[in-house]
Amino acid sequence: MGITLILTHIILYINKKNIKLTEYYFFSLFRFYTACVVLGLEALHQLGIVHRDLKLENLLLDRDGYLKIVDFGLSKDRFGYSDRTNTVCGTRTYMAPEIYLKLGYGMAADWWALGITVYIMLLYELPFNNKDPVEQMSSILYDDIELPEELSEDASTLIQELLEKDPEFRLGSGDAGAEMIKEHPFFKDMDWDHLLQRRITAPYVLGNEDLESQENPGCQAPALPPTAARIPSELQEAFRGF
Fold first, then answer.
1. Angle, alpha carbons 76-136-32 (nearest 5°)
2. 24 pLDDT exceeds 80?
3. Contact (CB, 8 A) for 35 and 192
4. pLDDT of residue 210
5. Helices (H) and strands (E) in the chain, counts
6. Which domains can be identified in the chain, with CATH numbers?
7. How far apart (Å, rounded) are the C-alpha atoms in residues 83 and 110?
8. In the prediction, which pLDDT does 172 show?
9. What is the sign, positive or negative, of the torsion defined by CA atoms of 79, 75, 176, 157?
10. CA–CA separation, 209 and 224 (whole Å)
11. DSSP string covering 177-234, please?
């Protein structure tokens, strides 16, 4: 199930039960989800893959309540920490400043997208939002983010350091990558080894009422298309380096 729908359910549950925001929202739920994404991006980067389209819509929950990164249509492989690419792609509201500047960007662009994702999860709105694409780009390039005073210091500094406009100083940039993010105070009580081994009980696990009924034709996924024919090598070469 998509994380956006899950967040809506959880927020309604929190409001209904009058649960304190800081006690439940930050340190139990979203720290867990953010940590899942950190491990996912770490694995991708270690494999030489930059995702380039991380966003809420590309995060799904499995049956155990763990978050998964999906949709690798814009990802780029055989990519090292010091490599740079100039292809402008992704979702505008999640794209890092260096992508708009067309000066070359690297894996730090994924960590910027994580910062946008965390901001939306915690505050339920976009940090840079304008219907006019030019104004939106200008906001991403030059505007400072605004964070409410009630947001915890650890959550605020995590967002600010991930949304550093200079990729060289952004949290997670460089060879250290995800290790820098894991050491942030926001994750001070996170057991990363247990999370990687899926030994942590997720704060929200899908119930039967959340899962799509297999008996409802309207909820059925379309049949998979037949196996595609092998793509000729000359056509594959045309997309090398994308």
1. 55
2. no
3. yes
4. 54
5. 9, 2
6. 3-212+226-238 (1.10.510.10)
7. 14
8. 95
9. positive
10. 26
11. THHHHHTSGGGTT--HHHHHTT-SPPSS---TTTSPPTT-GGGPPPPPPPPPPPPPHH
Tens of pLDDT along 205-225? 877 555 554 445 554 444 444
Sign of CA dihedral 114, 57, 94, 69: positive
d(CA 188, CA 184) in angstroms, rounded, equals 7
Residues forming a β-bridge with 105: 85
Task: Write down the pLDDT at residue 115.
Answer: 97
Render pLDDT for 187-202 as a digit per residue (tens, 0 to 9): 998 999 999 999 999 9
- In this structure, what token pair is assigned to residue 69? 């990164």
> How many CA atoms are closer than 13 Å to the CA of 33, on its beta-carbon side?
31
- Select which of 53, 64, 77, 83 is catalytic: 53
State mean pLDDT over 129-150: 93
> Annotated catalytic, 175?
no
Cα-based angle 128, 14, 210 (whole degrees, multiple of 5): 90
Backbone angles phi, psi at 24, to 5 degrees: -100, -50
3-state helix, strand, coil in the chain (%, to 5): 45, 5, 50
